[in-house]
Amino acid sequence: MRSEPRLTGELVGLVMAAGVGRRFGSDKRRQPLADGRTLLATTVAAAAAAYPRHYVVLRPGEAPAALGLAPDTPLLSAPAAAHGLGASLGDAFRQLLVCAPDATAAAVILGDMPWLNAASCVRLNARASTTAIVIPHHAGQRGHPVIFGRRWWPELAQLKTGEGARDVVTRHRHAVVTLELDDPGIWRDVDRPQDLPG
């Protein structure tokens, strides 16, 4: 029986925050939550707990401080963000191939997921490998983070349009590892003001 390649390098977190979020009615990334932090800052803090090495993906020219993030937040730029999440992923993975040569897998996290649970991320990370695509499930729904082994990064780097990496996942079903988690935070996000934490 063939064994999976062991994880020999770091896992990198990618917080995707270059979208426009039209359904919210304003820039939801700047929305303050009960503790005063912005929605994006809350998500990034949760991601940082599970992925000490992480990048936030923003549109060109956006300043982290304007979004409630630390000025030295590591950034990747998504100049094609207007063409959808797939285009932003393509931009991010093209840069990641260069700036993270020692990383063996990357966790894709949506920037509007303030309920992200570091413990769930740790369980997903334990299933990661250079060739796996690790996807969490809860109550019959897929969620995030989705962890892509480095083998799939060049293909992700070719994305130019679309709603995400669904086509890449579909083409490589044999590589998909699903993990059932008792955590609705893997798919709870904020699309409209009524979705905000109470």
pLDDT < 50 stretches: 1-8
The secondary-structure class comes to: alpha/beta
Number of strands: 8
CATH fold assignment = Spore Coat Polysaccharide Biosynthesis Protein SpsA, Chain A
Main attributes of the structure:
198 residues; disordered N terminus; single chain; globular; 5 helices; eight-stranded mixed sheet; alpha/beta; 8 strands; Spore Coat Polysaccharide Biosynthesis Protein SpsA, Chain A
Kindly summarize this structure in a few lines.
The chain has 198 residues and is α/β, with parallel strands linked by helices. The chain has 5 helices and 8 strands; from the N terminus they run βαββαβαβββααβ. Helix 1 links the parallel strand 1 and strand 2.
What does this structure look like?
Strands 1, 2, 3, 4, 5, 6, 7 and 8 form an eight-stranded mixed sheet that branches. The chain has one domain: Spore Coat Polysaccharide Biosynthesis Protein SpsA, Chain A, CATH 3.90.550. It contains five helices and eight strands, in the order βαββαβαβββααβ. With 198 residues, the chain is an alpha/beta fold. It has helices at 39-50, 85-99, 118-125, 153-156, 166-171, and strands at residues 10-16, 54-58, 75-77, 103-110, 133-138, 141-142, 146-149, 176-180. α1 (39-50) links the parallel β1 (10-16) and β2 (54-58). Mean pLDDT is 91; it is low at 1-8.
